[in-house]
Amino acid sequence: MALLGLAWRVAPAEVAEEDYLLPEPSAAAVNIAVAKAQSVTTENQEIIVAADTLVVVDNDILGKPADPDAAREMLDRLRGRAHHVLTGVVVRSAKLTWAGAVDTRVIMRDYGPFEIEAYVVRGEPFDKAGGYAAQDEAFHPVVRLEGCYLNVVGLPLCAVTAGLNALGVASELAGAPPCTYCERGAPLVRSGY
Questions:
Q1: DSSP letter string over 29-95?
Q2: Dihedral sign (CA 109, 1, 20, 128)
């Protein structure tokens, strides 16, 4: 968010994400983000930005793995193939709400079972949709991304900025093409994939 040149603070949203899943993955990501945005109260006319990221393979949504076996299964299923990372983004003021979804195609490398095990033993998969972090320096699970890099590693600022612009909030990067946000933000989180 600092890349946008705006003041911000974190306000955790207490939402049971699984209660807001829908059959269509893009709609599910937006629906969860809407629930998060509605669960947060504002102070002094603040703008709320909420998001939820889903990993989708074969039209199945992979959430955060609950245990080591689930993590191994997810990572094995993603190994050597493509999937989609979908993020629903909601930008809400007291009077207006904007919502959108960003889809990035991610191609995973053909890592082996010993690499999966080492990653699981480190405890890395359990707070991540799909059980992986694209920017993990030791595992390096991703071969290539097609689309917004920030969508995969954090928050797609292209969508956030579109929402802010729709609500009339100017940012330092207002009017720049969406790829500028990806290019400007990638060095902050990229470890080389």
A1: HHHHHHHHHHHPPPSTTPPEEEEEEEEEETTEEE---SSHHHHHHHHHHHTTSEEEEEEEEEEE-SS
A2: positive
- pLDDT at site 65: 95
Averaged over successive runs of 10 residues, the pLDDT of the chain (193 residues) comes to 79 88 92 94 85 94 94 97 95 91 94 97 93 93 90 87 84 55 50 34
Please write the tens of the pLDDT for every residue from 40-59. 887 778 899 999 999 999 99
Give 3-state DSSP helix, strand, coil % of the chain, rounded to 5: 40, 20, 40
AA identity, residue 92: R
User: CA dist 84 to 108, 184, 186, Å?
Assistant: 11, 22, 18
> Domains of the chain by range and CATH?
2-189 (3.90.950.10)
**Confidence at residue 190, expressed as pLDDT on a 0 to 100 scale:** 40
Predicted TM-score (pTM) of the model is 0.86
Residue positions annotated with a catalytic role:
52
Supply 176's token pair: 């720049």
Phi-psi region of 185 (alpha: psi -120 to 50; beta: other; left: phi over 0): alpha
Q: What is the per-residue pLDDT across 109-124, written as a single tens digit (0 to 9) for each?
A: 999 999 999 999 999 9
